[in-house]
Amino acid sequence: MRCDKIHIMAETLRMDETAFRRMVALRRQIHRQPELAFNEKLTAQAITGHLDKLGIKYNRGLAGTGVVGRIDSPKPGPVIALRADMDALAIEEKPGSPFRSCVPGVMHACGHDGHVAMLVGAAGMLAKKGALKCGSVVLIFQPAEEAGGGAKKLVELGVMDKVDMIFAGHLDLHYKAGSIAIRTGVETSYTDEIEVQITGRGAHAAYPHESVDSVLVASQFVLAMQSIVARNTSPLIPSVITIGALHAGSACNAIASSATLRGTIRNTDTATRREVIRRIRQGAKSLAQMHGARISVKVIEGYPPVINHPEGFAIAHSTATGLIGGRNVATLDKPSMGGEDFAYYLKKAPGCFVRFGAAGKSHKGLKAHSPEFDFDEAALKTGAEFLANVSLDAIARLSATRRSR
Fold this sequence. Notes:
- It is a single chain.
- With 405 residues, this protein is of the alpha/beta class.
- Helix content is 34%, strand content 24%.
- Helix 1 packs antiparallel against helix 3.
- The longest helix has 27 residues.
- The radius of gyration is 24 Å and the shape is elongated.
């Protein structure tokens, strides 16, 4: 009998203390052995070890290190996917944590260790007999979110084929542990990168008139880029241009003949993105003509924005409210200017990306992608329970929709 021909009532799943302690232990194990994009071998091994114990079937080695498990109920029905990213960052962790990274120059500075633990915890709840009465849940443990677009590679391998809806979340220190923040529509920005090569003419510092000063041109380029945002884009549509690296010269008494700049362009609107890139190229051409320099601009396409689907948002908001109460659920009114390759999954199926509050009393002022990053591990339980229950609620909602057709 199919899912849409039976009555489904999604029952709230809760995590017991023993399962929570196992989840914390897994998070700390992964935290001690962080791995960069497409090198998450030990992380994948830890994941498959837990899936084996739970009796969950999986494929491993996808896009190099990805693991995709699947839990099927006795009755066919909607297929819901849940995703966790696995990779760490090239950052040296600050001493002090009892489970500090054992890998020099690499740490989990964004909470992906927690995301993995949450999804394993959710899998444990869903794998219990009778928990999943109908449909299927796909568990996506994804490599390379921070660099390399692991999501895109998994989508190309077909992990989203026949998936009806997908959900994921990210730990966020802007919100207290035990809370969840959700937004409908655009949730994150485009993450394009820019590389600019300026070629002038070197000379002795005492004779600037004999040079084409690449440092001067580079400085004016940086300032000109800010005028694009200030005067050529709508103040009602978020847009950011940041030049994060500028390299030129090697001596204090010599005018550098060349300069290289690298930065990022962030937009939440396609038309604005297109106009900003056009203006950057136009500005570079004008500066080159004015100074007699050569300027090449290379725009490297980044992740598209995460756009939460209205139905996915409604299901996620309802699940969160039922789990933790309305006062602990925030509806975000503004998108983040950060990036997330979860966007590629949402191009294949509707869904929703949420924020798991992760701040405790000792985490005030801490930032993601910093050597001090850490989070309140109570957030792991909130995240795991949300992921498990949102999959059940989505199956119930989609099954009800099919019955009404």
